[in-house]
């Protein structure tokens, strides 16, 4: 039986319970990720981090949220009030909806009913995630436009360009996964990774997806839409109080969503890591797989935090150059290579070892081509023309060295010797 056949048969109250659980999981995971990021970054900087509110500072995120609730809410005079108020909702709602097709675990017994630990699934679930996630960009663009601020507008435009650039690379990276799984359903993709993870046999797709997911979520070093040094705060510069908190919430939910999607597509989903199920038969049964799933999600969240604490922000031209001239061409070549290997394996009866060796050779070629520096011509600096004859002389620099292009040194004539008596006598 296909994993898709298990959906659409639950009683309505089971669906409501699972929807509430997904909402609570996202909220709690966001609160934990905020604390987790602050503690990890503090550790990297030889600090302690939050340690006052609650055990180990775990309630610090709640304290920050309560503080934001009581802050003054300001709306700029030049803002479009209706759009300004709706923009945070347009960002938050898609962030919650995308998690509805993520599988947390296998089928379990919930209040006497056998149901999968997943709210819903569909034959094009991954396409659904990417489509809904793209809607959130409208909220960012509208937030920047409706604020009536130049900085906010530039942040919104940057975010739209960033989404277009890296959404293409992310989609191309997933094509190889669809080829191997034979489906775009998240539950069927997880079932296809029962023996081996796609992150191992499709390593280039995995790496490209990891880079693109950082760009999609506007996280450092790709946080150009909200660059403090350039745009003050980007698209949410004019927001305060709970509206700013909603942007903050959406960012961390999106970070958890792309991490959960990476876990589902490349690391076997809720399957036990390191082939623990070969030793422990119950590793993939009951509620135990939920631990494996969230452990992998936190691994990707740690990568987000690690990149933020390690790498500086890229320039805008570097960011666009990397997306269009590196990731997309490599993704296209990799798709052709995967399709060729799949066809050769099916038609020429190649075994898995031969296919793996060929994939390894292609990976080495890709890496070699990627790290080969592009041919660059050094710009020759034109010599500055000298001063025209009769032009005003250029004074020397303070240390007395020569001045480039100077016609002559500035000479001050000596004053005539005049005595005091001569001055008095006129």
In short:
With 426 residues, the protein is mainly alpha-helical. Helix content is 59%, strand content 3%.
Walk me through what this model shows.
- With 426 residues, this protein is mainly α.
- It is built from 14 helices and two strands.
- A two-stranded antiparallel sheet has the order 1-2.
- Strand 1 (105-110) and strand 2 form a beta hairpin.
- The radius of gyration is 30 Å and the shape is globular.
Reported for the largest beta sheet, the result is: 2 strands, antiparallel
Cα Rg:
30 Å
Count of discrete structural domains: 1
Structural class: mainly alpha
Rough outline: globular
**Based on DSSP secondary structure assignment, what is the total number of beta strands?**
2
Which short descriptors sum up this protein?
426 residues; mainly alpha; two-stranded antiparallel ribbon; 14 helices; 2 strands; 59% helix
């Amino acid at each position: 039986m296909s994993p898709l056949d298990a959906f659409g048969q639950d009683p309505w109250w089971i669906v409501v319970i699972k929807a509430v659980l997904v909402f609570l999981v996202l909220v709690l995971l966001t609160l934990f990720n905020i604390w987790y990021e602050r503690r990890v970054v503090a550790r990297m900087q030889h600090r302690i981090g939050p340690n006052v509110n609650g055990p180990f500072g775990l309630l610090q995120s709640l304290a920050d949220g309560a503080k934001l609730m009581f802050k003054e809410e300001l709306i700029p005079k030049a803002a479009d009030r209706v759009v300004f108020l709706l923009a945070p909702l347009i960002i938050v709602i898609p962030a919650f909806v995308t998690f509805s097709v993520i599988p947390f675990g296998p089928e379990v017994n919930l209040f006497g009913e056998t149901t999968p630990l997943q709210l819903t699934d569909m034959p094009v679930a991954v396409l659904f995630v990417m489509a809904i996630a793209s809607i959130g960009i409208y909220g960012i663009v509208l937030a920047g436009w409706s604020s009536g601020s130049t900085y906010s507008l530039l942040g919104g435009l940057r975010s739209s360009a960033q989404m277009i650039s890296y959404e293409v690379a992310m989609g191309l990276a997933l094509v190889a996964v669809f080829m191997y799984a034979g489906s775009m359903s998240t539950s069927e993709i997880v079932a296809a990774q029962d023996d081996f993870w796609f992150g191992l046999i499709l390593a280039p797709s995995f790496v490209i997806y990891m880079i693109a997911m950082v760009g999609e979520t506007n996280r450092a070093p790709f946080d150009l839409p909200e660059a403090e040094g350039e745009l003050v705060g980007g698209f949410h510069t004019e927001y305060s109080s709970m509206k700013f908190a909603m942007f903050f919430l959406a960012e961390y939910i999106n970070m958890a969503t792309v991490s959960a999607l990476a876990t589902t597509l490349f690391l076997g989903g809720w399957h036990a890591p390191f082939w623990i199920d070969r030793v422990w038969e119950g590793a993939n049964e009951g509620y135990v797989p939920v631990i494996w799933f969230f452990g992998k999600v936190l691994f990707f969240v740690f990568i987000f935090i690690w990149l933020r604490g390690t790498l500086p922000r890229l320039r805008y031209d570097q960011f666009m150059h990397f997306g269009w001239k590196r990731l997309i061409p490599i993704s296209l070549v990799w798709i052709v290579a995967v399709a060729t290997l799949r066809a050769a394996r099916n038609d020429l009866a190649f075994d898995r070892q031969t296919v793996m060796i060929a994939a390894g050779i292609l990976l080495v070629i890709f890496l070699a081509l990627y790290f080969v520096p592009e041919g660059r011509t050094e710009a020759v600096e034109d010599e500055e023309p000298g001063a025209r004859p009769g032009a005003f002389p250029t004074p020397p620099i303070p240390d007395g060295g020569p001045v480039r292009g100077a016609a002559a040194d500035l000479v001050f004539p000596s004053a005539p010797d005049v005595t005091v008596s001569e001055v008095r006598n006129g």
